């Protein structure tokens, strides 16, 4: 009996040693000829870094940031059982290489587009190659300076802010009512992006309906959450199997997508009818697509991508900005001083918004610390090397990481964790800011960069300046608790449990 036990232990030990030798051999074969710069977290044969990944699963952003800040070239490699090899980089040269220099080797890739495919279809956000390029060409004209000035600022923004947002804040101030500013800004951004893309106002931001959520917003929220769950599933086969059986989260996703499709298809049909009757020129993207004779399916998918791109990004950026300003009243006073130089009616003109340089510095500084898109991944088509020598294998997930980049000492200095908008100023004249620094898009890729850079960047800045200036000119916003808010990075980042504030007239 004892001999049998001894033999079994010996057999198991021999098997384990064999595995270890095999693993070491394979590692030494696939290891790059160049120096391994960034081994990442402690890894073990077969399971990889599964143990430390699990331990840090609720603080992945800071875990990655900690590892990146001690890595020689700000790049780490994460290999764990059940997930593809992932390279995470906060190195601007690597980011430039992925997003521009060798753009075609780093598309979003099937693992990404598969997860969002049921929801986003073939919309610009979820396709690569020719399909992506054709849509980019189609919608890029919608974002020129003229349409931003004529239609967006002087028409859409003015109406939404003056007729809806400010009255809500006015009533809350008069009634000393606590508001969730994040929710309010999300409602505003949703109404705005629907007006720009669909030419339709779902009126989510109405004082009387603040305690309710519009069914279409609910459907968008649910679809995004369920897709984020797909992304977090340990194995993609799990959600695919659930989809096949139409169970749980997959059933809810299917139902949410059905609501979204019905809603948008109805608007498309209505618009086609209207335009056929009176070929009147309208400024929204859908009307332009109808006039161009685009297919219904393409129009629907483009609309969904646009709404997703524009709805939560600006509201997230502004929520964190209001939080940071509330912690730095001196910085806020400077913003108010800058705004007050303008008369009321001049302040909100397109040209005056360009003069709000201190406010722009505050917005950039806030997004450096709390980027609305905290990380973004591509998938390598072929084997490759990043400029720092990191070896890429075909199929690897390659993630550029704006959240970590905003916290790298090499990029932003010793005071990188502090909110200091002054770091964005390059030139002063007579006590006024003459110019802001031209920080490269690969050092600060919050809007991505290269051929696939965010199309709404200018629109987003115009919107954020307009909204923040309109609010700060009239109101003081103060959080109701002194607790540090929690940054949650889903598809778009947000503040956990909202941002509860009291509004006072300034
Ligand atoms: C602070 C606000 C914003 C931030 C930080 C932001 C950031 C980004 C990022 C990181 C991407 C790349 C996503 C990816 O490829 O996976 C992107 C793409 C895009 N964004 Fe934005 N965005 C903002 C606002 C907007 C707005 C307001 C719109 C339009 C209404 C918009 C329209 C788009 C579009 C159409 C794309 C796809 C571009 C392409 O794939 O060619 N964005 N944005």
From TrEMBL:
Its cofactor is heme. Pfam families: p450. Coiled coil: none annotated. It is found in: Membrane. The keyword Oxidoreductase applies. Transmembrane segments: none annotated. Keywords: Iron, Metal-binding, Oxidoreductase. It is a single-pass membrane protein. The keyword Acyltransferase does not apply. Belongs to the cytochrome P450 family. This is Cytochrome P450 protein.
């Amino acid at each position: 009996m004892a001999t049998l036990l001894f033999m079994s232990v010996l057999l198991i030990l021999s098997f384990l040693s064999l595995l270890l030798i095999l693993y070491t051999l394979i590692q030494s074969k696939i290891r790059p000829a160049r120096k391994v710069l960034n081994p990442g977290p402690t890894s073990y044969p077969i399971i990889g870094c599964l143990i430390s990944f699990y331990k840090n699963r609720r603080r992945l952003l800071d875990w990655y940031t900690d590892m990146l800040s001690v890595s020689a070239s700000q790049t780490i490699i994460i290999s764990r059982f059940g997930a593809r090899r992932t390279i995470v980089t906060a190195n601007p040269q690597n980011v430039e290489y992925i997003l521009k220099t060798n753009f075609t080797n780093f598309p979003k890739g099937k693992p990404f587009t598969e997860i969002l495919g049921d929801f986003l279809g073939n919309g610009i956000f979820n396709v690569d190659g020719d399909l992506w390029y054709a849509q980019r060409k189609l919608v890029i004209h919608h974002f020129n300076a003229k349409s931003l000035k004529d239609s967006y600022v002087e028409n859409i923004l003015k109406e939404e802010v003056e007729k809806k947002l400010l009255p809500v804040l006015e009533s809350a101030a008069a009634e000393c009512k606590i508001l969730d500013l994040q929710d309010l800004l999300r409602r505003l951004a949703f109404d705005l992006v629907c007006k720009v893309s669909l030419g339709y106002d779902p009126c989510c931001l109405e004082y009387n309906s603040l305690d309710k959520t519009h069914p279409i917003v609910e459907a968008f929220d649910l679809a995004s959450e369920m897709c984020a769950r797909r992304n977090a599933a340990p194995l993609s086969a799990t959600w695919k199997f659930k989809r096949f059986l139409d169970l749980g989260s997959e059933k809810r996703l299917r139902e949410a997508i059905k609501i979204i499709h019905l809603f948008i298809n109805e608007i498309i049909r209505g618009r086609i009818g209207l335009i056929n009757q009176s070929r009147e020129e309208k400024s929204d993207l859908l009307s332009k697509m109808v006039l161009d004779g685009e297919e219904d399916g393409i129009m629907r998918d483009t609309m969904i991508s646009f709404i997703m791109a524009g709805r939560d990004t600006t509201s997230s950026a502004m929520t964190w900005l209001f939080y940071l300003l509330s912690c730095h009243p001196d910085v806020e006073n400077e913003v108010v001083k800058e705004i007050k130089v303008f008369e009321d009616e001049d302040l909100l003109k397109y040209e005056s918004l360009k003069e709000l340089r201190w406010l722009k510095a505050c917005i950039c500084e806030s997004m450096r610390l709390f980027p609305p898109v905290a990380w973004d991944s591509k998938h390598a088509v072929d084997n490759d090397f990043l400029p720092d020598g990191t070896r890429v294998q075909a199929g690897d997930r390659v993630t550029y990481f704006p959240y970590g980049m905003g916290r790298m000492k090499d990029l932003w200095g010793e005071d990188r964790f502090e909110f200091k908008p002054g770091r964005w100023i390059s030139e002063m004249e007579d006590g006024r800011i003459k110019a802001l620094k031209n920080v490269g898009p690969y050092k600060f890729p919050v809007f991505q960069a290269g051929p696939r850079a965010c199309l709404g960047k200018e629109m987003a800045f115009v919107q954020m300046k307009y909204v923040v200036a309109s609010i700060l000119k009239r109101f003081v916003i103060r959080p109701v608790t002194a607790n540090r808010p929690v940054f949650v990075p889903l598809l778009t980042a947000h503040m956990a449990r909202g941002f509860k504030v009291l509004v006072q007239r300034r």
